[in-house]
């Protein structure tokens, strides 16, 4: 989840700046649930592991200390499912607001490396390149 997450946050953001582009990433519910549920942490250090993308060398233990990893209560599959449903309900009016303003751009997929080129193309068309001092 990004920002703003609620209509109240969107209205507060309106008081700070005028948005001309909003990006919405539509990731399937099951993909999000699986990714969030794969997160484990080393409580003492705060090191985070993802069993799919960044697993520890030895399953269930921290790479540096060998101490056990834990799964936060809100990362358990049933808690993640409830969090995602709550987020979707809260975000729906935010999405509708930006869609009604004509500034919402939505991208769908399950993998960052497949979605990013489309997002990059959109951003590149809206933001001029930054020139180095030598190029001025």
UniProtKB/TrEMBL annotation:
GO molecular function: AMP kinase activity; ATP binding
Organism name: Hypocryptadius cinnamomeus
Adenylate kinase active site lid domain residues: 39-74
Protein name, as recorded: KAD4 kinase
Keywords tagged on the record: Kinase, Nucleotide-binding, Transferase
Entry keyword Transferase: yes
Family stated for the protein in its record: Belongs to the adenylate kinase family.
Gene: Ak4
Highest rank taxon of the organism: Eukaryota
HAMAP family the UniProt entry points to: Adenylate_kinase_Adk (MF_00235)
């Amino acid at each position: 989840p990004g920002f703003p997450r609620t209509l109240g946050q969107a209205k507060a953001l309106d008081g700070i700046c005028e948005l001309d582009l909003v990006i919405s990433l539509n990731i399937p519910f099951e993909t999000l649930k699986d990714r969030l549920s794969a997160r484990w942490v080393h409580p003492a250090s705060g090191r985070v592991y993802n069993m799919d993308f960044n697993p520890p060398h030895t399953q269930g233990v921290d790479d540096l200390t060998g101490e056990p990893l834990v799964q936060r209560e809100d990362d358990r599959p049933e808690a993640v499912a409830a969090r995602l449903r709550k987020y979707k309900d809260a975000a729906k009016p935010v999405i509708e607001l930006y869609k009604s303003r004509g500034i919402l751009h939505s991208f769908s997929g399950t993998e960052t490396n497949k979605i990013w080129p489309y997002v990059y193309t959109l951003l590149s068309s809206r933001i001029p390149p930054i020139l180095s001092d030598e190029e001025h």
